[in-house]
């Protein structure tokens, strides 16, 4: 099926004396001629207790696709991106490009983008409000056109994600940036274009800020050094795409990136990396259901900390080339301690899913959320399933079940992408029927996830 855009109108144990008792309380849019997005009120009904088996094909990375789609704004001529997942977040980003005047075709996980006719430098505000990644376009617009007007971004309500670092970096690259009517209004101070900076050090290794400043610096005059940057694999993927377009980037994947600006980048063809968060989620699905499955393509090095934690818990994990197999059949899994951190630490995007698993493991587990202060809204819903979890600040104490899974199916509500998936995983392991409302949140980042689970033997249906 083809879609076209057309205008329409630290892991330290806390002091044991601090561990609480588990009994303590606690307007103008562009349209895509593609299948319509799922109903926001859609529900997933799961009959738990089934073992999973078989092989699952991993989709392209949602978190890599969004900045790379935005990066096509840097390019003259068409760019073709393969392995783009058909999820609501990528559809929203494609619509944002369309609102800027880009010509976009989306067919069979391939996106062709031509930005030669981009005219306005202000994308549709209502579209930007849908996804956090929509704000990425501010960097390419400033770099290529010397100006940008972009509304503050939306996305999951998992905590404050200010754009202060973005703004400070863009100013360091020679732009004047102001806030007007909840919008970032920016233009090149010299009236021509951005200028490289000798060094800009990020206050925090923000993934989004790193990606945005990389794109802007690629078209700035002269050299730029970005220090204390994020090191996530998605940063490397963006750098690889930009390099294919003619950009000069060194150090992606380390804490320092050097960029020599170019006046012109040419559209190119690129294949998006596999989604490491989807890989981790299916690994956790196998563990929570005490099953054995395989998946590909997988780059095990990108998930080494998860592989280590699950292996220590009692899972058997093997990999051969790009195929990974995980088995937890008839295993009594032990709990463990994690603290989310920027890469290569434990990914915050797997924290809710791992918490669902830990509620079925033996002993006490401790989960510390160090990235987003509001990323534990799923805890109350997991508690409805029977999980014994106590929250203290940004730390969750998970009291696992000894030798038996005591999760029980019930009605729960997803309030964000990864938290919603944790409820799906809990439902797979629970006795009886679980109804997950608000499943459209999960559709933002997982392509055909219920079909993939059904092929593995899960009993679930969308209403």
Automatic annotation (TrEMBL):
GO CC, one annotated term: cytoplasm
Keyword Cell cycle found: yes
UniProt cross-references to Pfam families, sorted A to Z: EPSP_synthase
Keywords: Cell cycle, Cell division, Cell shape, Cell wall biogenesis/degradation, Cytoplasm, Peptidoglycan synthesis, Transferase
Pathway, per record: Cell wall biogenesis; peptidoglycan biosynthesis
Compartments it resides in: Cytoplasm
EC number of this enzyme: 2.5.1.7
Domain of life the protein comes from: Eukaryota
Classification via CDD domains: UdpNAET
Source organism of the structure: Castilleja foliolosa
Protein name: UDP-N-acetylglucosamine 1-carboxyvinyltransferase
Main location: cytoplasm
SUPFAM superfamilies assigned: EPT/RTPC-like
Biological process annotations from GO: cell division; cell wall organization; regulation of cell shape
Similarity field: Belongs to the EPSP synthase family. MurA subfamily.
One term of GO molecular function: UDP-N-acetylglucosamine 1-carboxyvinyltransferase activity
Region Disordered: start-end pairs: 1-42
Catalytic activity: phosphoenolpyruvate + UDP-N-acetyl-alpha-D-glucosamine = UDP-N-acetyl-3-O-(1-carboxyvinyl)-alpha-D-glucosamine + phosphate
Signal peptide: none
Ranges for domain Enolpyruvate transferase: 47-453
């Amino acid at each position: 099926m083809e879609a076209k855009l057309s205008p329409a109108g630290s892991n330290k144990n806390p002091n044991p004396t601090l561990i609480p008792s588990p009994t303590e309380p606690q307007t103008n849019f562009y349209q895509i001629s593609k299948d319509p997005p799922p109903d926001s009120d859609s529900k997933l009904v799961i009959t738990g207790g089934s073992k999973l088996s078989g092989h699952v094909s991993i989709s392209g990375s949602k978190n890599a696709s969004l900045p790379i789609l935005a990066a096509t704004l840097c390019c003259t001529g068409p760019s073709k991106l393969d392995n783009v997942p058909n999820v609501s977040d990528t559809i929203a980003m494609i619509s944002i490009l369309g609102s800027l005047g880009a010509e976009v075709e989306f067919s069979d996980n391939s996106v062709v983008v031509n930005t030669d006719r981009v005219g306005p430098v202000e994308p549709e505000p209502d579209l930007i409000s849908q996804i956090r990644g929509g704000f990425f376009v501010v960097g390419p617009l400033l770099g290529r056109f010397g100006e940008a007007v972009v509304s503050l971004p939306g996305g999951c309500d998992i905590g404050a994600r200010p754009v202060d670092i973005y703004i400070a970096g863009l100013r360091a690259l020679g732009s004047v940036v102001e806030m007007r009517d909840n919008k970032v209004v920016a233009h090149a101070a010299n009236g021509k274009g951005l200028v490289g900076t000798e060094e800009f050090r990020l206050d925090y290794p923000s993934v989004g800020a790193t990606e945005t400043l990389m794109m802007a610096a690629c078209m700035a005059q002269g050299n730029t050094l970005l220090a204390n940057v994020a090191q996530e694999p998605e940063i490397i993927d963006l750098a690889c795409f930009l390099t294919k377009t003619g950009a000069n980037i060194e150090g992606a994947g380390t804490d320092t990136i050097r960029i020599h600006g170019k006046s012109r980048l040419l559209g190119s063809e690129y294949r998006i990396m596999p989604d490491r968060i989807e890989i981790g989620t299916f690994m956790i699905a196998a563990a929570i259901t005490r099953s054995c499955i395989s998946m590909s393509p997988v780059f095990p090095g990108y998930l080494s900390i998860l592989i280590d934690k699950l292996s220590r818990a009692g899972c058997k994990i093997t990999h051969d080339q790009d195929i990974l197999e995980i088995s937890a059949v008839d295993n009594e899994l032990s709990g463990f301690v994690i603290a989310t951190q920027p890469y290569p630490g434990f990914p915050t995007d797997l924290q809710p899913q791992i918490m669902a698993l830990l509620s079925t493991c033996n002993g006490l587990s401790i989960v510390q959320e160090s990235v987003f202060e509001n990323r534990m809204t799923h805890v109350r819903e997991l508690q409805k399933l029977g999980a014994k979890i106590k929250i203290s600040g940004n730390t969750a104490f998970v009291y696992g079940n000894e030798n038996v899974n005591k999760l029980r199916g019930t009605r729960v509500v997803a309030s964000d992408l990864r938290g919603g998936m944790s409820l799906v995983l809990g439902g797979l392991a629970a006795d009886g029927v679980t109804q997950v409302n608000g499943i459209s949140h999960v559709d933002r980042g997982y392509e055909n996830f219920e079909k993939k689970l059904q092929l593995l033997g899960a009993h679930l249906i969308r209403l």
